[in-house]
Amino acid sequence: MPNPNALSQPAVVIETYRDEHQPIFAALNLAWIEKYFAVEPPDRQQLSDPRRHIVAPGGEIFTLFEDGTPKATVAMLKDGARSFELAKMAVAPSAQGRGYGKRLVQRAIEFARERGAQRILIRSNTTLRSAIALYRKLGFAITRLGTDDKFQRADIQLELDLRQPARVVDAAAETTLDPQDWGDFRALAHRMVDDTVDYLASVRQRPTWVAPTAEAREHLQAPAPWQGQGAQQAYEEFLGFVRPYTTGNISPRFWGWVQGSGAPVGVLADFLAAAMNPNAADFDHAPALVELQVVDWFREIMGFPHGSSGLLVSGGSAANLTALTVARNTQIEGMRERGVDNERGRLTVYASQEVHSSLRKAVEVLGLGEASLRLIRTTDDYTIDLEALRRTLAHDRAHGMRPFCIVATAGTVNTGAIDPLAALADVCERERLWLHVDGAFGALGMLAPSLRPELRGLERAHSVIFDFHKWLYAPYEAACVLVRSGEAHRNAFSVTPAYLQQLAAGVANAPLRFSEYGVQLSRGFRALKIWMALKADGLEKYAQLIEQNVAQARHLAARVERTAQLELLAPVPLNVVNFRYRREGASDAQLDEINRRILVQLQESGFAVPSSTVLKGRFSIRCAIVNHRSTRADFDALADEVVRLGERLAAA
What we know:
Elements: E1 12-16, H1 22-36, H2 41-48, H3 50-55, E2 60-66, E3 69-78, E4 83-91, H4 100-114, E5 119-124, H5 129-137, E6 141-145, E7 156-161, H6 182-201, H7 214-219, H8 231-241, H9 264-276, H10 286-301, E8 309-313, H11 316-331, H12 335-338, E9 347-352, H13 357-365, E10 373-376, H14 386-398, E11 402-409, H15 421-431, E12 434-438, E13 463-467, H16 468-471, E14 479-483, H17 486-493, H18 527-561, E15 566-568, E16 576-581, H19 588-604, E17 611-615, E18 618-624, H20 632-651
Parallel strand pairs: 4-5, 9-10, 9-11, 11-12, 12-13
Antiparallel strand pairs: 1-2, 2-3, 3-4, 5-7, 6-7, 8-14, 13-14, 15-16, 16-18, 17-18
């Protein structure tokens, strides 16, 4: 017997478009749009004449009636031969929560399938949470977030791929990034390791550099993938579009800029570090102990005393910025509280004209301004002119400036020149200035017995930086900054909010709080690749390699000097060789152009990658040798090829 209290269910009907539906379609949509957004030109066009702009081109409009009263509507716009755009979905406020939106979307999907469509697109706005949740439950996937080229209000796009089986998203279900099948993951990992070992072992068989193809450039400009394709396919794309087109610095004939060649053991160490995934910051864990051990090893190598501190950072630029921050905050009282006060006199830093550009950036980042970096001329061997430095210091003090730091370079980028470190230490002691040594690659010469005398005085510096990814051949990126006074180092950066307080036990009982010695709180486990490399091969092997690179530089320089068509352009105190092709009767301008073309042809042919600089107005082919794979035969081949190319270009 029927329950007399039961409410009768309303009659719900979904109708396709008829012209008398236009006022209904417009009213429902305008009420919805104006409630949340502004009406835009495409809205007015479609709502004013739906037949012309939606139905006639191959689309459709569905309107849902409840007991004869229109309650909801949605449009399907033709969007190409095999695609539709679901748009203009509006549900009357009185009908919301009854599932009418879902019914309309399901009907729209049926419509698209009946017409052999392959996809349905939706443009929406992330504030419409319930609508987006509905779309995702019905299998639509997010394909884009951000600005839209059609509607200002749209900041999200979703698509339904009708070629794939229906995919339903359960918002309450939990997921993970762990593989569903660890066996498949293991097999892919083994393949990656095997491929990578083959890649490293065959490095001499490939060109030094290959420019990315047009196909690779286009592929790497594709929109962000909202739906994954699986690790296997991602790896295939890496092999096809990424790995072939690197700078080539692992090649035996790469001597450009100052880019290290990387050691294979470091590849494995980075893999292990990534698997551990520690934040090497303020915790009681082995990664902190490893970094402390690495820092202590190099503190001893550099001749710094106990009580010195150190930090691993990304590279020389970050290391120089860290060191100059400590210098400024230590030398200038109240700096952290009051900041830079040029009314009391401009703060000034002194370095040679050959100083690395990262020092200028550091001075600017510290708020001192480019004018605070006082560049001192160099002597004929490209080292700082001490007498010019003394005169500039006296002049600046007399004019109210406040010198606080001298930057010495141990291995200039252009020529490998080493500033007179001991003499600069004397100047700093006398003038009460901070001595910072930028030893990005040269400081690691302290490992080599034959080079330590050239670096005498480095041990007297207040701070020194060096890149492990240069002359210790570590994979990018890893550098170190050492500071003589650990207290000064910590005082320059220490900030300890309640959520980072150190406890007497537990995970937060850190042996040292690295976040109090630099700007980074999130820190990768860079130290592992240094630690493993030295454990695997020992410091003596690295000392031998550094001396080998210096011997190779001298070999190339000697070869240049005894070749009539080549000219050495600068002294070779360390591992950097500057030279050019020359031809009797050619002007410097003509030689500059010929040597530029030689350099480009060397690189584009894949034969070798030196880089360039300009010395005393002359274009130079420059080799900075921090490569453990190079042999003397490679440098002989380079000299021969430069002569061959030069003769051909000069005769053209």
